[in-house]
Amino acid sequence: MRKGPWITALSLGMGLFFSACVVRLVGVSPVAAGKTLLRGGMGDASAWSETLVKATPLLLVAGGLCVAFRARYWNIGAEGQICAGTVACTWFALHMPPMPAIFSVPFLLFTGGLAGAGLGAVSGALRAYRGVNEIITTIMMNYVALHAVGYLVEGPMRDPQGYLPESAEVPSWVLLPSLSHARIHAGFPLAIAALLLLYVLLKKTVWGFTWEAVGHNPRAAAFAGIRVRRTLLSVAAWSGAMAGVAGAVEVLGIHFRLREMISSGYGFTAIAVALLGRSHPVGVLFAGVLLAAFQVGADQMERELSVPSSVVLFLQALIVLSVLAGETVRSRWEETRGGGEG
Amino acid sequence: MTGVTKRFGAVAANEAIDLDVRAGEMHAILGENGAGKSTLVSVLYGLIRPDRGEICWKGSPVRIRHPRHALRLGIGMVHQHFMLVPQLTVAENVMLGVREKAWPLLDKRTVRNRLEEVSLRFGLRVDPEKNVEELSVGEQQRAEILRILYRGAELLVLDEPTALLTPQEGESLFHVLNQLKSQGRAVLFITHRLGEVRDWADRVTVLRKGKRVAVLEGKGKDPKELAQLMMGGGKADDLRVEGRSRSGRERSSGDPLLEVRGIRLKGARPLRDISLKVGAGEILAVAGVDGNGQRELAECLDGRRRPETGEILLEGKSLIGQGPRAAARRGLGHVPQDRRGEGVVLEYDLSRNAALRRFLEKPFSRFGFLRHEAMREEAERMVNVYDIQAPGPHTRVKHLSGGNVQKLILARELSTGPKVLIANHPTRGLDIASRNFVWRRLDEAREEDRGVLLISADMDEIMALADRILVLFDGAVAGELFQEEATPSKLGLLMGGAGNA
Amino acid sequence: MNDLFSGPVLVGLLAAGLRLASPLLLSATGELWSQRSGVLNVGLEGYLLLGALAGFLGAYYGGDRVIMGLASSAGAGLIAGLFMGWMMVWWGVDQVVAGIAFNMGALGLTSFLYRRLLAGSFLPPQVTGFRPLLWDLDLSVPLALLGVPVSWFLLKRTHWGLAVRAAGEHPEAVAAAGIPVRPVRLACCSLAGTLSGVAGGCMALSLKLFTENMTAGRGFIVLAAVVFSGWDPWRVLAGCLLFGLADGLQLRLQALSVPVPKQVLMMLPYALCILVLALRFRRTRAPSHLAVPYKPG
Predict the structure, then answer these.
(1) What's the domain count of chain B?
(2) How far is CA B326 from CA A110, A229, B360, in A?
(3) Residue among B283, B313, B320, B337 at smallest CA distance from B463
(4) Cα(B231)–Cα(A111) distance, rounded to whole angstroms?
(5) Is residue B337 part of a domain?
(6) Residues B477 and B347 in one domain
(7) Among chain A residues, CA nearest to B327
(8) Helix (H) or strand (E) holding C85
(9) Cβ-contact C72, C58 below 8 angstroms
């Protein structure tokens, strides 16, 4: 594995290079764009705080995806699961009796997680017990959930006093405490803690063993006595739960209400984060912060250089593809060295 | 047709090997697993490029870069794993890649006529409109041979052609090959079975450890002499497990440890009312050609599949619905058929695979936390006791050779002291040293009063190890014999579904 | 509700359904070939988007001509298909992951290019696009429908079709028969890209404009259609028609101000997709080597 990170770094470089070419094609200097990007994302304290704010949901979702991807369960439904989390969290927050934050916050996060888990589990069950491809079902669920949110903020959950399609603001006792004057809130350390927990689970517990075994070789896993179907269902629920928690965190820490587009692509970016981080919590940490910085920097880039921020999506994709190619190179190389079968 | 000469020289797998095959000749390549036979033939067929050496076809040197090229020259190969697409018909398989006049349209009629002509000429009867997956193994092989004959092959190369056939099917295959020989074709076949060389080969080239050791007249050769050349050490007797202390009948008279009653399973490969018993200190062999229900039976015994009716009892207590882990805990060991696909997780290292079946129990985990130390120690112990060649306990199993993987699996299954061990095709594809190792361990298990259920299609293995033999055909028990009354031909008849002889 | 099922309304519904189904069908036909040969294109959504943008830009900059739009969308799809095919077939990257990444990239690229090139006008730019042929149907319909019998014939009755079918089930046998596997797969993947590109172009030309992420998950509906129709051209036709009708119905119901919230109606095609997949009546079998890269030698 020692060569692995080098190849990833090299692939990263290739991805950046190709993106620079595309940017140049539309008449913008890649160097200027790059500088603005980095400055916007990591240039000063306020940039950093924005980055970490954006990174929080990414880390949470991508952490859950680590689990799913290791079991080769392709949960692309994070967008929808985040939505489920926001809905559940907001609803409970608005209908709860007053109580100290130390109880209300964990409870609300839990409801978010539960909602996300539920949504994820539907696709998980379809895959585990009917063999239905989870990529398709989770993506379909995304649209269903997104539209559901749209309906809720215009209808049942709409703020009676406001004129925007969004819910009432959640009461103040449920907010996540903020750290320093910036927008950073307690969600960030929570995400770090979650990643830490995931690391332990993955590498040191029987659950990690199970997930990876199912991902590498379901037949051998069955032979080892692992209930493959149940494992698939549980990773689907688990990754859904993490996404749901991320949604709840966004509501309680940033938006303070339910509205459309809370997610704005976090679900998909988190997939890129998980892929770049090789489904490893530490990798996810770095990749998550990096991609969050790109997002923030891209907004800056749009303001200053009028380069649309969606170029960042393109950049992400190129990087992921380069890393994938690097992976195949590495495994082929390993094959010729490691020696074949007798 | 003038003679055909080939000369190879390649390092490592094949070292400076010379081989020549004449028209109208049946030539065998003899060697144990790993001697380099497949490599040599792959070079001939254009699948591998030799580092050194040259090939002369019909007197002129050629460079064969690709199977396409080989086929065009007239060299056709029948692989062990057939190059037939199961979901297509025989005719479609033959048509694949062949440009008839109506190209690009598929001209089914012309092909069918030509196929009939070819199959009549060589006595290979196959229904061209059937899907390959519906054919028996023997029929599939005939289809494969037809396919290359259709394209005008003059030299047929067959890789272990009788590996998947009953003895009777093997006989008819060789009759067909003889027919081909008499019509001027040349046949080159790879085998590790001495009997085939003695009965059919005009000449034989013996390979050992990548080198050519001898080229001799084949017919009527004493197998012991051939074995000596193949093994290079006069240890031909190692091929048989040393003497029987008790007869098969005696051994089978104990109390049954494992009992199976009336198992039925629906599906593509159904099981019809199977019953069997394995007693302490006995090796029961379930013989049969692959695909007659062995895999399904093994999965039922192991707990991975649930039979519709019937009972499976281990020491009198039911195993049905318990799952593989419970079965393992109660003392059922299982060496699976597909060692790389089922028995281990290739990406995991030795220590994780050593604990694969018991990772949820002490000492390998506690309160959900894995104890890597314990797993590593277990792996190291297995490496020592079973002499597994591996760089270390953290090597990924995918880097191990087949023999070593099998040793690991055996070590793992035996380490818990199981009451019954199921060994499913345990020595398939292994070299002789590993095979003898496995046989010795199974014999040991028997001496330790365990019960062994051996599922195999290897006649040598069955004759060498079994105390009692059950033959499986088409999902049902076709017959049962004690070791002392069993002969390969009796077994072959039962395996081929011919009923009790 | 009564007027919903009256004659002309029904015909209108069917026509709309057919028209909405055409891009799905085009794309599905291409993906059918690709999957039969063993290549899984999760990135269909990306091909559609690229094709939509290319089609729109082609018409916009090409003198407002439909043919320019179709040509550019085919070209864009072909390039994308070749690129992805190269990655998946020659490099052997994980097809699922690559497809997901590709979708992301296509979304980013199309949004980026569109805004960069055509931002700054108050009204969204439009093209004339398809002219209606009959009953509100346009050119995309016959294009798509043509693909079905042609595919069926080619797959069953020609050597090319045979090679493709074999490549998805048993690539080693194909190689042994002397047919190079990887070019076959690359060709099929490129076909999927091209047809999906054209499908995207049709979408843009039908709606006469381009919006970011206008495909809204249709690429995945196509995937679902290929899967649950058992990789057979005629059943794929049926499947796409089903989704097209659902889409059309949903639009009509919105227009008729049925007392159902519009978002629930919009969910309809997606929920239907899940339902259909979950209720798979027949256990149809995928090509055995689908998404398994082939390594020669």
Answers:
(1) 3
(2) 35, 18, 11
(3) B283
(4) 70
(5) no
(6) no
(7) A225
(8) helix C66-85
(9) yes
ipTM above 0.85, yes or no: no
Pairing of strands B420-424, B451-456: parallel
- Structure confidence at residue A240 (pLDDT): 96
* Residue C40, CA distances (Å) to A137, B485, C220, C288 in order: 16, 55, 12, 12
Q: Under an 8 A CB cutoff, do A308 and C87 touch?
A: no
Average pLDDT for B300-305: 81
Interfacial residues of B (vs A; Cβ cutoff 8 Å): 34, 302, 304, 323-326, 328, 334, 336, 338, 341-348, 352, 356-357, 359-360, 365, 368-370, 398-399, 401-404, 431
Taking the CA of residue B342 and the nearest CA in chain A, the distance in Å comes to 4
Instruction: Give the mean pLDDT of B468-481.
Output: 84
* CB contact burial B197-209 (16+ within 10 A = b; e otherwise): bbebbbbbbbbbe
Q: End-to-end alpha-carbon separation of chain A, Å?
A: 24
> How many Å lie between the alpha carbon of C231 and the closest alpha carbon of chain A?
15
CB–CB of B465/B439 below 8 Å?
Answer: yes
Distances in whole angstroms, Cα of residue B153 to Cα of each of B106, B187, B366, B488:
22, 10, 63, 33
CA A210 to chain centroid: 22
pLDDT given at position A340: 36
Domain boundary assignment for chain A: 51-264
- CATH assignment of the domain containing B478: 3.40.50.300
Q: At what angle do helices C95-118 and A311-338 cross, to 10 degrees?
A: 150
Q: Which residues of B touch A223 (CB under 8 A)?
A: 302, 304, 324, 334, 336, 342-343, 356-357
Nearest CA distance, A219 vs chain B (angstrom): 5
Q: Is the CB of B87 inside 8 Å of chain C's CB atoms?
A: yes
Tokens of C197: 């590109």
Looking up tokens 């098969």, which residue turns up? B248
Chain C, nearest residue to A328 by Cα = C93
Do B112 and B84 belong together in one domain?
A: yes
Pick from A204, A223, A338: CB nearest B399: A338
pLDDT, one tens digit per residue, over A58-82 is: 999 999 999 999 999 999 999 999 9
- Chain C residues with CB under 8 Å of A26 CB are 112-113, 116-117
Q: Contact B96/C177, CB-based, under 8 Å? A: yes
Length of chain B in terms of residues written: 501
| Residues of the domain holding B326 | 240-331+418-501
**8 A C-beta contact, residue A242 and residue A113:** yes
Q: What is the pLDDT of residue B244?
A: 54
Q: Would you call B346 and A213 a contact, using CB atoms and an 8 Å cutoff?
A: no
Residue A143 distance to chain B (closest CA, Å): 36
Q: Confidence band (pLDDT; 50, 70, 90) for B6?
A: very low
**Cβ contact, residue pair A216, B336, below 8 Å:** no
Look up residue C125 and give its DSSP letter.
Answer: P
Residue type, A76: I
Q: In terms of domains, do B389 and B450 share one?
A: no
B75 versus B2: which is more confidently predicted?
Answer: B75
- What confidence score (pLDDT) does residue C187 get? 95
In a domain, B338, yes or no: no
Q: State the average pLDDT over residues A272-296.
A: 89
Nearest to C212 by CA among C105, C110, C77, C80: C110
| Token pair for C90 | 């020659």
Helix and strand element counts for chain B (H, E): 17, 22
Domains of chain C, by residue range, sit at: 22-215
Q: Dihedral of CA B122/B127/B132/B135: which sign?
A: negative
Any C CB within 8 A of B43 CB: no
For residue A214, give how far its alpha carbon lies from the nearest alpha carbon of chain C (Å): 17
Q: Say how far apart CA C48 and CA C41 lie, in whole Å.
A: 12
- CB-CB contact of A327 with A93 (8 Å): no
Q: What is the pTM of this model?
A: 0.84
Q: Is C232 on the interface with B (CB under 8 A)?
A: no
